[in-house]
Every structure is written in C-alpha cells, then in structure tokens.
Amino acid sequence: MTAYAMTEKVHIKACHLTLAYDDFIVQQDLNFKIMRGDIFIIMGGSGCGKSTLLRHLIGLNHPATGQILFDDIDLCTATPELRNKILFSMGVLFQSGALFSSMTLAENVCLALSASSAVKLTLQEMRELASFKLALVGLKGFEDYYPNEISGGMRKRAGIARAIALDPQILFFDEPSAGLDPISAKLLDDLILELRDNLGTTIVVVTHELASIFAIGNHSIFLDEESKTIIASGNPTDLRNHCDNRKVQRFLTRDLADKKHHGSGTCFDNDLSNS
Ligand SMILES: Nc1ncnc2c1ncn2[C@@H]1O[C@H](COP(=O)(O)OP(=O)(O)OP(=O)(O)O)[C@@H](O)[C@H]1O
Ligand SMILES: [Mg+2]
C-alpha cells in the first residue's frame, strides 16, 4: 500500500445507490468508499452493470435513488458551479479510447485543454503542455502522429495523456487493457501505477483482466447480476485467498482452473456471463 492509500481520506462515497434504466434496475443498495490514492477495481460478470456504475460516477447518468459524494459533496444536488468543479476534477478513458482519428496525438490532447473554460492558454502553451503529457505516458516524439499510425497500446496511452490533460484528481478507466496483448497490457498497468504514485491520482478501473486486477488494485467491489448488488469487497488478493463466495472465487481463480484443465499457456476464459 502506498503513502496515498494510507492517508485514509475518503474521496468518493456511494450511499444506498440504485442504478436503473427506467423500470429496469441494474444494481441496488450499493455502498462503498473510494479513498484518495486508491486504485479501486469494479469487477463482475458481463452485463452486471460495471459500465453503468462508471457512467453514474462520472455524472453521465443520475442515480434512481441514493447518493454519490465527492469529498462530501453530492454530485446530483451540488450547485452548477460545484458540479462543474467536480466534473473538471475527473479524467475518463472510455473503453474505445475514442481519439479523433483526423487529429494528431498533440491535437487530441490540446482539444481537452481547450474544452476547459478554466484554462486560458495560448496555442504554443497548449502544444507544449500536450507534449509534456504525451511524454508522461511514454509518447515523447509522437506528437504529430495520427491515431492510425500507432499501435493499440500507444493509442490507449494517448487516450490517457488526453484524460490527464487537465491534471485530474480522479481517473476513470473502462476496460483499459481490453484488446491489448499481454505485454502492452502490462505496460499500461505500470503506467496506471506510476500515475497514482507520482501524481497521487485516485484511479477507478472497470476490468475483468485478472493480471491487472491483482497487479494494480488495492481495493475492489464485485457486482453480481443475479442479486443486483455488491457481493464482495476488499483487496483483490485477500478476496482470492479468503472470500468464501463461490461466484467471487470462480471469477478470481479462473486462470488457475484454466491451467488445470488445459495446461499452462491457455488463454483466459472471458465469458463470465454465467459466472
Ligand atoms: N442505455 C441503456 N438502456 C437500457 N439498458 C441498458 C443500457 N445500457 C446498459 N443497459 C443494460 O444494463 C445492464 C448492465 O449493462 P452494463 O453495460 O453496465 O454492464 P457491464 O457490466 O459493463 O457489462 P460488460 O462486462 O459486458 O461491459 C445490461 O443488462 C445492459 O443490457
Ligand atoms: Mg461494460
């Protein structure tokens, strides 16, 4: 655990949260705390509501009931000024990465800088800041490349450079290593750890990649589709070693089960819809 995680200051708190699309309840009575400097993992089988929870945490969807507090301020009832302040303290990397293909990497990062009315920079200053952010994610010298000229792992890192353009206090990642080879996924995990350790950023990651979950997560929640709520929470390694819940065990030890059945070197079974 790092110095950041040890500060034990609550950054985000969910209280009796119910997530729904009209009459369809996705998750209910969610209660959890995310501490400053946590790398907090949201896990669970396909369709249980991980992305839906993320969309609520970043203010795109409103809870059916319950509250989401950022430093004790309720995102839903905050004044527009406070709400904007909270939203501008966040950076988001969506699953697709979502870079603009007709813009260079530097232009993609500059776009995030120019979107904030709080940041008044000249074009030259924006360009310098974009180069700095790209260098932070290991893309020094790639400012003028277009997204289709670089690898998938580099595109993810460029997406992170854009997400950290405004020095966010919280970063949200939806399946960051999806579609990456194991080496690129490991490099991305290292980058996420560096961001937390060097910048003190609170990081919330939706993922089902076991290697990432154990490498970077210090706290986690497990969402269950059937009971529509959290069925386990805690340090992922502790959950793997001590949690009695059958679904959680099956999810967190499926790599071992695969190796037993197919020998080492077998790919993970990612179909968790029936887990
Ligand atoms: N815009 C929407 N309108 C109605 N239902 C939706 C909407 N988006 C998602 N759902 C439903 O909500 C449930 C949770 O979806 P969500 O995408 O949050 O799951 P997930 O855990 O992120 O799944 P995955 O692991 O496949 O990404 C699913 O039953 C899905 O069909
Ligand atoms: Mg999802």
Feature tags:
six-stranded mixed sheet, 10 helices, binds adenosine-5'-triphosphate, 2 domains, globular, four-stranded antiparallel sheet, binds magnesium ion, single chain, 37% helix, 275 residues, Rossmann fold, alpha/beta
Plain-language structure description:
The structure is a single chain. The protein is α/β, with parallel strands linked by helices. The protein has 2 domains: 5-89 and 168-262, P-loop containing nucleotide triphosphate hydrolases (Rossmann fold), CATH 3.40.50.300; 98-167, no CATH class. It has helices at residues 50-57, 80-88, 105-115, 123-136, 152-163, 182-199, 210-216, 236-242, 246-252, 254-262, and strands at 10-21, 24-35, 39-44, 65-70, 73-74, 90-93, 170-174, 202-206, 219-224, 229-233. The strands form 2 sheets. A 6-stranded mixed beta sheet has the order 6-7-8-3-9-10, sandwiched between helices. Strands 2-1-4-5 form a 4-stranded antiparallel beta sheet, covered by helices on one side. Strand 4 and strand 5 form a beta hairpin. Helix 3 (105-115) runs parallel beside helix 5, helix 4 (123-136) packs across helix 5 (152-163) and helix 5 (152-163) runs parallel beside helix 6 (182-199). It binds adenosine-5'-triphosphate and magnesium ion. Magnesium ion binds at residues 50-51.
